[in-house]
Amino acid sequence: MGDAANMQHSVVIHPLLEGVGGSETVCLATLKALYQNNHEVELLSSNISKSLLETHWADVFEHVSISRLRALHPRPFDTYLRYLLMWIEIRRRVDTKPDFVLLTQELLPGLSKFRDSTKVLYVHFPRFHGLEDRGARFVSRGYLLPISRLIESQLNRIDQVICNSEFTKSAVLRQWGNYGISEPSVVYPPTLWSFNSSLQWDERKDQVLCVGRLVPFKRHELMKELAIQHPNIAFVSLGSYVKGHDAYARDLLNESPPNFTVRLGVSQAELARNYESSKLYVHLANEEHFGIAITEAMSAGCVVLAHDSGGPKEYLPRELLWTDIEDLKRKLQILLADRKTWTFWHQRCKEISQDYTFDSFSNKLMKILHGPLN
Length: 374
Hints:
Blueprint: E1 8-13, H1 22-36, E2 39-45, H2 50-53, E3 65-68, H3 79-93, E4 100-103, E5 118-123, H4 138-152, E6 160-163, H5 166-176, E7 185-186, E8 205-211, H6 222-229, E9 234-239, H7 246-253, E10 260-264, H8 268-277, E11 278-283, H9 292-299, E12 303-307, E13 321-322, H10 325-337, H11 339-353, H12 358-369
Parallel strand pairs: 1-2, 1-4, 2-3, 4-5, 5-6, 6-7, 8-9, 8-11, 9-10, 11-12, 12-13
Helix pairs in contact: 1-12, 9-11
């Protein structure tokens, strides 16, 4: 920490700090980058999840002041109430004039309060416009249209937009370009967790891992099909239960092959053990925005396979991308049977993961905050 007289005051707003996914990773990294660079940091958030507090990054919260925020989970027909509550909470809780306001989860109402602050929005994907939203019923889409327009009108108050991938940046410009936003920057999320990546072919289980929320977008159901083809290989899906998708979770658990397992709400320690002991990690979502689980798996020494779309195309070699289920099956078959091929890509994946460090994230964030506009 530097001289208190020269410290800048930053407010980070992240309504729901639950789980250990991409947005939570960005929030933690942002908090640490700010306080390490002589910022007095205030976090506005709901209760911090146990899964975050049990990680080695929990000490981040010792360096920031926390204002508790009442926040609702994003459910379609609670949307208006949820944003009204956010507006009330932001205007009630934050009564200072910070130098910076950083939104690390989503665009929120109430930004007119921070007229003299530099406002930064980190976009994981434009809300209301993602693949997860396309399946909404017509009535739901019509219901959400007014609030989506109201929230997006806040964009003219944002000074800097940061995206988690070039794929997301393209979506931001396509969906929000007419709001006069500045040219977005791309800052990839870092991998924060320390994994043992040294385990080799003989030391790892014959196991294929998939990590993500149990929602249709993540396509965990494909693990069943892969498990049937490889009855002597363990297929494991680790994820979190999401209200509103309980039917999908039930279908996933029903009539599963004996070598397919689903585990919910695992600890960070159990997640690390599975990353470190699995031979392969498969990412099944189409148009994934970035894919933090992919970079985590690579840093733990897993060989990864991801769909040839979205953010993963920006950092994975063509050989590790699959186009359809038959292509995935072919590549999976080779990597499960050929030790030499697996060992080559095991080393290559570890090398790729080194590009997604906290230091890289922090340096890029600070250049944006303290660039020409500031």
